[in-house]
Amino acid sequence: MAVKDKLKTDLFPTIWCPGCGIGLIMQQLATVMDDLGLDKLNTVLITGIGCTGRMGAYMNFESVYTLHGRTLPVAEAIKMVRPELNVIVVSGDGDTASIGGNHLLHSIRRNPNITVICNNNEIYGLTGGQTGPTTPQGTNTISSPAGATYSPINLQGLVNTNPNSYYAKTTVYHQGPMRKAIKEAIEWPGFAFVDVASQCIENNGRRIGFSSANDMLQSYRTEYKAAPPGSTHLEPHQTGIVKGQVPAAAVPDTGPAGAAPDNGKN
Amino acid sequence: MTKRLVQGNEAVLLGAIKAGATYFAGYPISPSSEILAQASVYAASHPEFRFLQEEDEIASANAILGGSLAGAKSFTATSGPGFSLMQEAIGYGHKVGIPCVIINVMRVGPGTGMPTMPGQGDLNQTRYGSTGDYTSIVFYPSTVAECYEYTIHAFNAAEESRSPVIILSDAFLGHLNEVADLDTIDVPVIPRTLEPLAKGSTRLFSGVATYADGEPATADADEYIRQYHESRDHRLKVAEKYAFHEYGWNKDAETLVIAFGITRRVAQPLAPHFALFRPIRIWPTLDKELTEVAARYKKIIVIEGSDGQYANVVERMLLRRVERVPLLGGRMSLEAIREGLDAIGMLPAESEPSGSPATAGSHRVG
What we know:
By secondary structure, chain A is of the alpha/beta class.
């Protein structure tokens, strides 16, 4: 198999704007899927509403394009009914952390063995550039002309309220670390969240002073620094991985009945 | 073959299990909570039956969509306010074509309303609650045994129609205990109709209008109309097989009473004075059956636990005036019915004070 086989390339070019970061995530996800042997018989994709949600349409997998904010209840149900499947959620920050925030809170608590990849562009892009839950305070958006009023949501802090969870922060510039994070997240035997800073040039970047998508990409290179090895907490603009303890129930041979230690991910 | 006391809510759960349901997601809300609680008890000893108490009804409704796509016959149970929260997901289920069953044990609304007095005010919500045009199939039983029976039918109709099917109940019926022998109720079970996820296809299940290949069809009226007509026509055709209703009481009377669910039970002592038409399939409406029956009667009275939701439907269907006896605020009583009949000058002079055996000639279809 090849990476290309993970994609419905006959539907290309994608619907995404030129310069959008989502394709960079899809490319790395497809690469990891190929590395791990994920295919249409062992993996399903769950996506939400927003530009990111279109990713399911472009990949050679069964895919559920859910209602706005509802990826996690759908994903958890699928995992519960079919524990042998790899369940991968791909969605944006608004879908995941705002309208889907209550589900996020409780999925983190329940710690299902699913992977969430969050295209975090700090804006509601599809609707034209309104303030989102991740928009930095003070950012000029079309719904905050005087600057976003409130601090962004702390996704790392939320995810890490469960000591068994996995949280990674990366960017679309950092392709290698992003690939590693996605791979580890899929292999993680519990709730895993990959928070990917990603540019929306058309409905955010230009307004806040970037002249091109490449400018935004380069800003990730200069602004984000890898956290020191062994960090248990990432500072703002640090990339890295914060892993919890592997939940006991997921350790092979010692799990209770009904747990799915052999999840086909390896 | 055991007769025993069964509660309405329990009968619904047993019907779901009989129908082959293996996934329940729900959130506690009176007067439906026994279904959740008893589903959890059942799941504890049946590992093939998956159960999740969700964070809210939005999660519950979306979860049963996911559970169904994954391959499990899936259901949830709630009451009015929770049912309101489920509406978007119900519309999604209609759009995408996902079989599942939602039980709505009605109380008095709107808002938090009157927990937990019985109401029948969610009829319109079961038909028009979500955005856009769609074709709902809804059943409303009247007895504990029927709660079991029509829940099995609801799962069957969901499979055949590929849509969320609603079972209506109410606080009165859900908490009613009746002697029933559920083993004598034999409804053939229709197996799954939707290929489970990850069996070799690469389908896109999308709430967004798309073409068959997954590309957006969000500005193509012709494609929208084609898809809409296809699903509507299919669901109406399926519904024809489930045209459940009851016609009886004193068929020679001049006036036809229309009552359904628990209200039909409460109205039973009126049997000597009126004919009865009871829709069990609430949606789609029983146009052919009711039009035929109604033509034989000078007057029609709709007795219901809302301010005319079904009476309005009947007036529009028959294009003739119907009298209304709304039972509001949870007053599902014979006294309230008598007051309502008196208010419209239709209280029978020699109305018997209590139960009458005059049900000879009544027949139920379905």
